[in-house]
Amino acid sequence: MSAEKATGRFRRMLDRLSSSQEDLESEELREDAQASGCTRIAECDDRQMARVTGTLRTVTFRPRAGVPALEAELFDGTALLDVVWLGRRSIVGIEPGRRMTAYGRISMSHGRRVLFNPRYELRPLGQE
Fold first, then answer.
1. pLDDT for position 5
2. Rounded to 5°, angle at Cα 91 from 80 and 76
3. What is the pLDDT of residues 95-107, one digit of tens each?
4. Is residue 112 helix, strand or coil?
5. Does the chain have fewer CB atoms within 10 Å around its N or its C terminus?
6. pTM for the structure as a whole
7. 8 A C-beta contact, residue 83 and residue 58
8. How far is the first Cα of the chain from the last one, in angstroms, to the nearest whole number?
9. Are 24 and 77 in contact (CB under 8 A)?
10. How many CB atoms lie within 10 A of CB 77?
């Protein structure tokens, strides 16, 4: 049994050394989502209520139908989710690289998962 544990640890160490930084970050995000009890973004279906967590990759201001809209891409290691706040030009703390948890109804738009005006929590800085 001890040899199996050593082999497992050695194998994991080799896997980490041979993985890219992006792969390691994706794995960390997937583990974080599972540990927090959130739904993986890749498993979210259209019109499903879901609680998701991940890292904001991009944040842009893009008006929709003449209404201001702040859009962010949330990545949890499995898939991307577009998070949109209608009527907002900016939100303090919503910036690339920040981790957050969001809750709301997932919808599909042009083949992408979208979450409009979610309830959200930003992770404290330094715990990212």
1. 52
2. 20
3. 999 999 999 999 9
4. strand
5. N
6. 0.74
7. no
8. 35
9. no
10. 21
Rounded (10°) CA dihedral 127, 102, 50, 74: -80
Task: Give 40-104 as a DSSP string.
Answer: PGGG--TT-EEEEEEEEEEEEE--BTTB-EEEEEEE-SS-EEEEEEET-S--TT--TT-EEEEEE
84 closest CA partner among 97, 66, 68: 68
The amino acid present at 104, given as its one-letter code, is G
- pLDDT surpasses 60 at 61: yes
Q: What is the C-alpha separation between 57 and 60, in angstroms, rounded?
A: 10
Q: Between 109 and 5, name the one with better pLDDT.
A: 109
Q: What Å distances lie between residue 3 and 10, 13, 78, CA to CA?
A: 10, 15, 32
Identity of residue 15:
D
